[in-house]
Amino acid sequence: MKRSRKALWRGTNLLWVSELAYKMKDNARILFLVTVVTSIASMSASFVLAVDETNRKEYENNPFAIEYYSFDEQHTEQEFAAINELLDREGVSYRSFKVENLYRRTVHDAVPSVEVIAASRFNQLAAAMNLPEAAPDSGEAILISSPAQPSHGHMTPGDKITLDSGHTVSVTEVFEREALPFMSWASILVVNDNSYRTIQGDAKSSVLFVYHVPEWNSRPPSGTDSPEAVIGAELKKRLQENREQYGTSNSFSIRIGSYLSLKQATALFSFIGIFIAFLFSVSSASFLYFKLYTELAADSKMYHALSKIGLSASEMRTSATLQIGLLFFVPIVISTVQTLIVMRPVLGTMYVYSVYKPVFIVSAAFLAAQTLYFFLVRSRYLHRLKRMTV
């Protein structure tokens, strides 16, 4: 701005540009401190929001309230009947589906492993998963993946996937979900029934029973007193008693239990993160406030001298507002960029991929708070300067 003589010598630009250039150098340390403090506060609040957002999305993207994994056929029917009996007794409307799949490794880094499922089985689940029914031809497949998977990469229609069994299929469609409804550590590969039998060979399919309860597929419940949480807790207790009594290797997953467990586990971190964000937000504003007031005497003398040669009160307010505004808002911009750069790899190691939305929400909150501090400091600062004008 100093190099543009035309812009520099227009109105009061010379005054505030020169003053700001001096203050940026003089206040470099305080600006650095404010930026670091704001960044730490942004990171702590963003981490809390990102974990909570991912937990909520995993709940909402999983249409199946109960998942029962059958590894021990001897007790499967008994436990399956116990689940149905409890749901029927409580008057819950549900549909259960039997899923058979094959776990296979691949030779691709983008999709290191897949769960192969036959199209006929997948089409029974498609409506509940909010996906179209699949009808792949022989040698073709539909891929459903999630960024929450390790080594997640992107594949496009036309790419080929080679399984460790030696079979190769061509991907015709790719669907990406933020959280898969089941088997979340491997992508889902949908093939036609003949291809499934060919890939299966002599291997034994894994068996999974999933329960779709339409009345529970809304917003996540806020506490443990919801019907889903009460029934889920009772079902979990009953199935655990069966496992202890019969020593069965079957396992189960209750959606609401996983959601509430993570929510309760992060409750303390949420309080700490928000408290740190609030404390550091006030601290950063205080740093700038006291720094401006230490310079008030020198600024008062300068504006008093300038008022003698014709600087008006409105021009003085404009110049001071620009200087104060940049000192308050530049750290917010830099801390937002820094938080985005730092949080993405950190959250990625935890398979938390909701980064941008939490960071921008936190940055907007800090911007709102900083704007409030700005107007408070500006009004007091200008009030003191106004008394020095002639």
Automatic annotation (TrEMBL):
InterPro entries, A to Z: ABC-4_Integral_Memb_Prot (IPR052536)
This protein's UniProt keywords: Membrane, Transmembrane, Transmembrane helix
Keyword Transmembrane: yes
This protein's record includes keyword Secreted: no
Transmembrane residue ranges: 268-290, 324-343, 355-377
Coiled coil regions in record: none
Region span, Disordered: 143-163
Protein name according to UniProt: ABC transporter permease
